[in-house]
Design a protein that fits this description.
Layout: H1 8-24, H2 30-67, H3 69-105, H4 127-134, H5 144-161, H6 165-170, H7 188-193, H8 198-229, E1 236-243, E2 256-263, E3 270-273, E4 276-277, E5 282-283, E6 288-289, E7 292-293, E8 296-297, E9 307-318, E10 324-335, E11 341-344, E12 350-351, E13 355-361, E14 370-374, E15 378-383, E16 386-390, E17 395-404, E18 410-421, E19 427-430, E20 437-438, H9 440-444, E21 449-452, E22 464-474, E23 477-485, H10 491-498, E24 505-514, E25 520-522, E26 526-530
Parallel strand pairs: 12-18, 20-26
Antiparallel strand pairs: 1-2, 3-6, 3-9, 4-5, 7-8, 9-10, 11-13, 13-16, 14-17, 15-16, 17-18, 19-21, 22-23, 22-24, 24-25, 24-26
């Protein structure tokens, strides 16, 4: 608060004091002295309002100390000193007011604690108050007013001593005890209290108490401002995630710090990159500046080699008082060549005519940023880096990935070639016939030939028999040789099955099958001996 300006409350107290001084200049009656009671009541009410404001200021100090004790502790301790000195000063003045009332009214000790000024009968008595406050000497040096003046001057000095030199210079505390320059009295004590009636003396002391409380509030406000004097003002808070590494191998932990970051969109920090030494606060080589937009540094560099790249520097931020605060930082990132990884999910090769599942990934590139194509067959995306290569032909199938970067540009991530094989030769069996030796009943109940790729072939691939040749030998003598289209036996062959005996043989040859690729393949021969 500048010396040329006073808060409205302090102006009101000064106005009330002018009224009090004007009344003292009159030869007043007891009825007029009741006006002092009104003024004193107003001053006491103002004091209560001061008390509430001061309590709120101490609460703010306690809150700040809880949040940031390291920064606030020094000012908080000064605030506690201010509190102690103010309590001692106000308590001393309270005791002085009670002494004047007690001795003027003739109360016993402590009785004055229960009586208010409006109930005092000797409001106009000035002899006893003058004797207590001014003493027996003409300069008032032996009275309590002289001690009060010394205490007020020391209080003001000590309170200002809690502040920094700049605030001491600019802050005006409303505690004034100057000697008069005109009139019959030569000092503040006599000018203020000589021949002042009881009502006036008590009211003046109430006004001084309000001045003390006003000074306490001013000092507290100044100390509170000191806690924020070198704090950078922030106007934006945003969530930030800083990962220990954005390149995580399978099976390792991904770790990140998640926090609220505060910054100021209008203040422009100076961000320097280089070999910065926090101990000396200097760079060992020339530094580079980082452009800043809305309080945030925009660091970008084109990579030219692989490996772990480290960088460091410092952020210089100017506080409201002009002090430069330095915040060192360091970080690193990994530069690697695009590493396209394509895995066949079922077998190490693709098969013609089938749906071949694959997984595609590029470390450091989200799946949704990849555009994947194939050179043979149709590629069907399944989501989360999974794809199906449908119906490729025998030959090669190239899987190609292109990534969309953060700036919107596209970059090839590489390709991987797979061999597309023809479907394996299926295994053909007679249904219901477990092996090359079977009973007549097992053969007679067989429904036809079935074609499968066996348990080791992981694809869900279908194969069917389209034709076969069957020869039957009874007692070692050839009796039948028929060509069949499809996989079902002819009626002639079924009739022959019913006439078979132990030792007779069935020979199935030239078995033709068709798989998912549409190719006709000659499968295995089948020989069954009746047991």
């Amino acid at each position: 608060m500048a010396s040329a300006k006073l808060p409205p409350r302090q102006k009101m107290i000064g106005m009330m004091y002018l009224v009090l001084t004007a009344i003292l200049a009159l030869n007043v009656s007891k009825d007029i002295l009741d006006a002092f009671v009104t003024v004193n009541t107003g001053l006491e009410n103002t004091g209560k309002t001061f008390d509430a404001d001061i309590t709120s200021l101490y609460d703010k100090f306690n809150e700040k100390k809880t949040i940031d004790p390291l920064r606030v502790m020094n000012s908080w301790k000064k605030a506690q000193e201010a509190k102690k000195m103010s309590v001692e000063m106000n308590t001393w003045i309270d005791q002085l007011k009670k002494q004047i009332i007690r001795e003027t009214e003739g109360f016993k000790a402590k009785e004055e604690d229960t009586i208010r000024l409006q109930y005092v009968s000797a409001k106009d008595n000035y002899d006893i108050p003058t004797n207590i406050l001014c003493g027996a000497t003409e300069d008032g040096s032996t009275g309590s007013a002289h001690e009060l003046r010394n205490k007020l001057q020391q209080y003001k000095k000590n309170m200002l001593g809690l502040l920094n030199p700049e605030d001491q210079k600019n802050l005006h505390l409303s505690i004034e005890t100057p000697d008069p320059t005109t009139g019959e009295h030569k000092n503040w004590e006599m000018q203020t209290f000589y021949h002042a009636p009881l009502a006036a003396s008590v009211t003046i002391l109430s006004k001084i108490q309000d001045d003390v409380k006003s000074a306490e509030a001013d000092v507290l406000n100044a100390l509170l401002k000191e806690t924020d004097a070198d704090v950078i003002p922030f106007d934006t808070v945003a969530a930030r995630v800083v990962a220990q590494s954005n390149y995580v191998l399978l099976g390792e932990k991904y770790q990140a710090d998640i926090f609220l970051a505060a910054f100021n969109k209008t203040l422009v920090p100076e961000i320097k990159l280089g070999d910065y030494d926090p101990a000396t606060g200097k760079f060992s080589n020339p530094s580079d500046s980082v452009p800043v937009s809305q309080g945030i540094g925009q660091y970008a560099i084109k990579t030219s080699k692989e490996g772990i790249m480290k960088y460091q520097g410092v952020i210089n931020m100017k506080t409201p008082k002009g002090q430069i605060m330095q915040f060192p930082f360091q970080s690193e990132y990994i530069v690697a060549r695009p590493a396209l990884t394509v895995g066949a999910d079922k077998m190490n090769a693709m098969y013609a005519g089938l749906e071949n599942p694959i997984s595609v990934s590029v470390p450091g590139i989200p799946n949704e940023k990849l555009r994947v194509t194939c050179s043979n067959g149709t590629l069907k995306p399944l989501g989360n880096g999974k794809y199906m290569v449908v119906g490729p032909r025998v030959g090669n199938c190239d899987i190609v990935a292109v990534a969309t970067m953060d700036d919107g540009t596209t970059r090839p991530m590489g390709s991987m070639s797979f061999r597309v094989k023809a479907l394996p030769v299926p295994i053909v069996k007679m249904t219901g016939v477990p092996s090359s030796r079977a009973t007549k009943q097992q053969v007679a109940s067989s429904l036809g030939l079935i074609s499968t790729y066996g348990p080791d072939f992981l694809f869900d691939a279908k194969s069917r028999v389209v034709s076969f040749q069957m020869a039957i030998y009874k007692g070692g003598v050839f009796v039948s040789d028929d060509k069949v289209q499809g996989n079902q036996y002819t009626q002639k062959q079924r009739d022959t099955f019913n006439a078979l005996r132990r030792g007779d043989r069935i020979l199935i040859t030239d078995v033709k099958t068709v798989g998912a690729d549409g190719n006709v393949i000659t499968a295995n021969d089948i020989t069954v001996t009746i047991q």
